[in-house]
Specification:
This protein is α/β, with parallel strands linked by helices. The chain is globular, with a radius of gyration of 24 Å. It has an 8-stranded mixed beta sheet. The chain has a two-stranded antiparallel ribbon with strand order 6-10. The longest helix has 28 residues. The N and C termini lie far apart (about 95 Å). The chain has one domain: Spore Coat Polysaccharide Biosynthesis Protein SpsA, Chain A (Alpha-Beta Complex), CATH 3.90.550. The structure holds 2-acetamido-2-deoxy-beta-D-glucopyranose (3 copies). The site of one 2-acetamido-2-deoxy-beta-D-glucopyranose has 3 residues, from loops.
């Protein structure tokens, strides 16, 4: 009796020792992934601390506009005229000496037709009074119009190779923006916005729009039922979104955030585009489909209402237009 008990005790000891050795070995190969978790949390939730409660007062009042949705289900602000105090916001970011980057692509006829108006109107309305760097990506640098920039604002021209199909121009934009953030932009700016060129600023597009990651609600779908959204519906594509999924339909004409997060966005979308190409599928709205998939997985910290990119159809809920999205002459522009 005595002997068996001792043997049992010894067995328990050996097993415990063995398990302890195993855990040490396991931990040395799989250290606790604290860093990954912190990064992930940052991506999705830091706006609470950094945006809504930044400054001396809460700058955002979600109940100031009552006929529109002003908060998402995950608590991110949706900016409408009246929900924020522009004077307080300007002071807050001026004190921090924030530098805002803007990337814009103008290739082929888009350069001739839209770039000048886009840049001139940005000088009037985009982040007025703040430090701005324009990163203008074109196929022919000598065609970039000469511009009288306000103090504190700079413009850099980057020549990019031309793709033959417009679909490829729009998809490869993700690669070009990513490369430029990696090599240059992340050392120069605090926040970055990426714009399509066929638009004109007509009202304040200010620092209230800055956040860790920013998405633009598409004007054509903001009142639509989500099963009407033009997401990519083929499961073969990396951009696939099921009929019962999705928050908003986002417009690829405007997106932004901290440079490291925009870099993550462009890289993730590019990976999806490349995966699709190797599977011989192309998402229905190209880079925009991949952008929508990205923002479904990585909820944006702030949403811009259609005031920030409006197609000019008259609508009673739009009280203030900030950026107007020009009617597209697709046939003329795209038949290169
Ligand atoms: C937010 O707006 C509502 C409606 O205008 C107003 O009654 C309320 O006092 C505002 N809240 C704050 C904190 O300013
Ligand atoms: C613009 O360029 C000038 C001169 O190189 C520089 O002093 C200034 O800091 C730049 N502005 C920004 C916003 O980077
Ligand atoms: C983007 O960020 C997420 C979360 O940190 C990370 O898991 C992912 O690998 C990143 N993607 C790219 C393409 O950098």
């Amino acid at each position: 009796m005595q002997v068996t008990l001792d043997i049992n005790k010894q067995m328990v000891f050996v097993v415990l020792l063995f398990m302890a050795v195993l855990s040490v070995v396991y931990l040395s190969y799989h250290p606790p992934r604290l860093t990954t978790q912190v990064v992930k949390k940052k991506l999705q939730f830091d706006w609470r601390k950094n945006d809504v409660h930044s400054g001396t007062q809460s700058w955002f009042n979600s109940s100031a506009v009552t006929d529109q949705q002003t908060l998402t289900s995950w608590g991110a602000p949706i900016l409408w005229e009246g929900t924020f105090n522009p004077v307080e916001r300007d002071e807050f970011y001026s004190k921090k000496k924030t530098v805002i980057g803007l990337t814009v692509f103008a290739i082929g006829r888009y350069l001739d037709r839209y770039l000048k108006d886009f840049l001139e109107s940005a000088e009037q309305h985009f982040m007025k009074g703040h430090r701005v760097i324009y990163y203008v990506m074109v196929d022919i640098a000598s065609k970039v119009p000469a511009l009288q920039l306000s103090p504190g604002r700079n413009l850099t021209v980057i020549e990019v190779p031309r793709q033959s199909r417009w679909q490829d121009i729009s998809m490869m934009r993700m690669q070009q923006i990513g490369d430029l953030i990696q090599d240059q932009i992340r050392f120069e700016v605090t926040y970055l916005f990426c714009f399509d060129v066929d638009q004109v600023f007509v009202g304040r597009f200010g620092v209230e729009a800055l956040a860790y990651s920013v998405a633009q609600i598409h004007s054509a779908f903001f009142a639509a039922n989500r099963n009407k959204f033009t997401y990519e519906r083929s499961p073969k594509s990396a951009a696939y979104i099921a009929l019962d999924e999705g928050d908003f339909y986002y417009h690829a004409a405007v997106f932004g955030g901290r440079p490291d997060l925009v870099l993550n966005l462009t890289r993730t979308c590019l990976e999806g585009i490349i995966r699709d190409k190797s599977n011989k599928v192309e998402a229905v709205w190209h880079d925009e489909s991949h952008l929508n998939r990205y923002f479904l997985d990585h909820k944006p910290a702030k949403l811009l209402s259609p005031e920030y990119c409006w197609d000019l159809m008259p609508a009673k809920h739009i009280r203030y237009v900030r950026l107007k999205w020009l009617p597209k002459d697709y046939k003329k522009l795209r038949d290169n």
